[in-house]
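Training component of the fellowship. As part of building independent skills, the fellow (R.M.) carried out the full modelling exercise for a liganded target. The chosen ligand was adenosine-5'-diphosphate. The inputs are recorded below so that the supervisory panel can assess the work.
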Amino acid sequence: MTDIVIRTQNITKKYKNNFALNNVSINIRKGDIYGLIGKNGAGKTTLLRIISGLSILNEGKLEIFGQTSESDLNSVRSRTGCIIESPNFYPYLSARKNLEYYRIQKGIPGKECVEKALNNVGLSEIGNKKFKNYSLGMKQRLGLALAIMGNPDLLILDEPINGLDPIGIVEFREILKKLNRERNTTIIISSHILGELSQLATTYGFIDNGRLLQEITSKEIEEKCRHHLLVKVNDTAKASVVIEKELGCDDYHVLNDNQIKIYAFIDTPEIVTQALIKNNIMVSTINQCGANLEDYFVDLIGGNQNA
Ligand code: ADP
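Fellow's submitted model of the complex:
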């Protein structure tokens, strides 16, 4: 039994001669918070629309909860909640009445799910306020309340944090983390701003120009970005002994015959150089390396960060 919730295999979507998606293959596991990151126009919405059944792929295969045929996909989509385009809430109705309207329209049984959804997004206190008087942050939360109302196993969220202030972003992230933690809801969420999804996503899919550049877990990125000294020496075996015995450090990694990563002494590389030279090891270079998540993304997409 696979724990894959969404799998796409070489999905391609063309608009006339333009590839909105080009051979995109992603894998989302149960309980993942999958951050789909890319500039505007990268193909994020197109991919999320295909997953949620709002758009049809030209080539490739889509699997959701193990189902691949069109009719099975449609039936498992009842286990999903989406924010793709902003829902049309009625401005003169309260949040509560708007949700009640959609509950009936979607055929979700049990009135209490409205209250639960409002509660989950922190709107129960102001649920009687008219939608038109809501701030952007409240409107985004109400959109999320609508998406989670049927207790979905999978949430598909297209740029739901867009336009929120920093506090709003933190609060929105916390709501999603809670849903993920308490209900094990799998979430795919897109953004063109990496920082919005850092501290939230457990896996990232980086997309550019319709192509998936990389799929990587947050742990793997952390490891790649971790600050270190990259030391080039003539003898890594001897150097390892010095690093351990003389510098008392076991947090290092030998890359090959002449390169070592040392995850200590980042601000005092001269201590490392001195110890190595004293032990007749030739040091040709020693560099401070490591990146933050933003740098990582910029490097990956080739230096054009602006979305
Ligand atoms: P993102 O969500 O990452 O900003 P989109 O998926 O909306 O990107 O768009 C990907 C590409 O597909 C863009 O070049 C966009 O112009 C094009 N595109 C999206 N929808 C349509 C459409 N309905 N007709 C023609 N081109 C489209």
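The panel noted the following from the submitted structure. The chain is about 35% helix and 25% strand. The CA atoms of residues 176 and 269 lie 41 Å apart.
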